[in-house]
User: Which sequence fits this backbone?
């Protein structure tokens, strides 16, 4: 544990704020998005710049403190906070610079995706992200990044050109295809294992208006719709993305009153090609006579924040996930069974397509080893009331247990809770050893271990 003099010396180095247990703001500052997580660090460093991050990493290492890095704080397992250690909170580092000539955007480590969409949209550009605008760029990118543009432009990591990283020994390095290429490979899926990323550089794509929104069907049509979806989407052009979902229709506009609070199945579409071609691409969807056809043109950032109000911070969340290659009839029947048992209004199951452009990147090119999988499935129990914690958790686990035998084996790291080393290894498969060797090179003492942890090669389990 630190002595008072070293703490004062550290505090004096910071431009940002250092919060200690007992400070009035501390309890609010330790909260993360998932209210099921209740961890109590000793210190929270609200970093203002890279120098603050370097000072914080050095202080943690020198004082043998557990260190958690917080980007957007969205991680389901609560990996943006820790017990008894220090949280390096990047939320104050949210600068962005778009380079419209080079078609790139530089994003500080604490940005949320809404910040990025806002900045790039002004230039008629976008880079692939997730589907909720309050999610952090940091965690989402370092784990892969799946969203409405995946089939067209690939995962977020497939558009990541360079990162600035503060390493465990306090050094600051840049990693790209030209320098520290082993680190550049590792951060494109290996999570926050290698250091604090203070800046991300992404490729951007011309994109302004998308034709997007949900189509919904009654639950008793689940098997018919899911069987149609599993055939239709893989053959659809990459401009068309659509994730399958179970949901309870929110009780308010834009949903018609007669559907309010009905449990339904649906697909959330995003056509990112020429808007004039969208109706043609979506003709087969209309032919399936949805109970609601809510698809229309909208600015891309509007789609990106469409679900924000449904999922504000502070709810209880429990997740389980798997990659999926095929959806045989038996799996479809199980989905129909558990979809009908959704325990609460916000609980859901999503099947995110990861074919199209995601499949065009080689399996060895990044640590994301499921380049051949067609979907990333995630089951999430969500509710504002802590009293429903057990109910949402057991539904989620039972659903996952039933479907797991039909999965590809591992899961997307960003959809995992604390599920142990076997699951981490199942996710990285043959890349695990290479990642462990790179971890040994850049973080041999495993300072960065509040994550889906990769043990440095040679370390004891
Ligand atoms: C409502 C919701 C919607 C989501 N939707 C999607 C989606 O559409 N697509 C998708 O791919 N994922 C999605 N996710 C999952 C999301 O990718 C993960 O939860 C991710 O970990 C969130 O990143 P964060 O920065 O907000 O999290 P945090 O909790 O801050 O951090 C998560 C992990 O990343 C590390 N980390 C974060 N920033 C940095 C950094 N700058 N440098 C080093 N390490 C860092 C942390 O140390 C921690 O281990 C969603 C999550 C939620 C809660």
Assistant:
């Amino acid at each position: 544990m630190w002595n008072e003099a070293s703490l004062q010396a550290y505090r004096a180095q910071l431009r940002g704020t250092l919060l200690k247990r007992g400070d009035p703001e501390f309890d609010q500052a330790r909260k993360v998005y998932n209210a099921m997580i209740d961890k109590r660090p000793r210190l929270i460093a609200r970093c203002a710049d890279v120098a603050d991050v370097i000072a914080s990493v050095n202080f943690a290492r020198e004082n043998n403190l557990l260190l958690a890095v917080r980007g957007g704080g969205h991680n389901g397992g609560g990996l943006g906070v820790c017990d008894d250690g220090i949280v390096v909170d990047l939320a104050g580092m949210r600068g962005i610079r778009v380079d419209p000539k080079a078609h790139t955007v530089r994003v500080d480590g604490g940005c949320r995706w809404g910040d990025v969409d806002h900045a790039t949209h002004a230039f008629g550009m976008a880079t692939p992200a997730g589907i909720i605008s309050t999610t952090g760029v940091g965690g989402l990118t370092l784990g892969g990044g799946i969203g409405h543009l995946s089939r067209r432009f690939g995962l977020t990591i497939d558009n990541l050109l360079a990162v600035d990283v503060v390493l465990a020994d306090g050094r600051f390095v840049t990693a790209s295809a030209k320098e520290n290429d082993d680190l550049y490979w590792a951060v494109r899926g290996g999570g926050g294992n290698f250091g604090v990323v203070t800046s991300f550089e992404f490729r951007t794509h011309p994109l302004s208006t998308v034709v997007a929104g949900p189509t919904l069907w009654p639950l008793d049509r689940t098997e018919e719709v899911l069987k149609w979806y599993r055939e239709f989407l893989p053959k659809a052009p990459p401009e068309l993305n659509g994730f399958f979902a179970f949901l309870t229709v929110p009780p308010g506009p834009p949903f018609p009153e007669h559907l309010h609070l009905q449990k339904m199945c649906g697909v959330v579409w995003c056509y990112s090609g020429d808007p004039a071609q969208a109706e043609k691409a979506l003709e087969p969807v209309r032919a399936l006579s949805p109970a609601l056809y809510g698809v229309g043109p909208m600015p891309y950032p509007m789609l990106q924040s469409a679900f924000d109000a449904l999922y504000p911070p502070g709810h209880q969340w429990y997740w389980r996930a798997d990659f999926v290659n095929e959806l045989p009839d038996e799996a479809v029947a199980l989905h129909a069974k558990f979809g009908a048992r959704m325990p609460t209004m916000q609980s859901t199951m999503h099947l995110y397509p990861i074919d199209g452009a995601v499949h065009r990147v080689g399996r060895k090119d990044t640590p994301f080893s499921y380049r051949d999988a067609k979907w990333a499935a995630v089951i999430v129990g969500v509710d504002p009331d802590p009293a429903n914690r057990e109910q949402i958790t057991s539904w989620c686990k039972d659903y996952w247990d039933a479907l797991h035998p039909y999965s590809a084996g591992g899961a997307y790291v960003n959809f995992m809770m604390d599920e142990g080393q076997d699951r981490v290894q199942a996710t990285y498969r043959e890349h695990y050893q290479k990642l462990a060797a790179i971890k040994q090179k850049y973080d041999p003492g495993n300072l960065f271990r509040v994550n889906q942890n990769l043990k440095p090669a040679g370390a004891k389990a």
About this structure: The mean pLDDT is 97. The two ends are 25 Å apart (CA to CA). The pocket of flavin-adenine dinucleotide is lined by residues 32-33, 68-76, 79-80, 90, 109, 130-132, 135-136, 138-140, 142-147, 191-192, 196-197, 311, 414, 450-451 (CB under 6 Å).
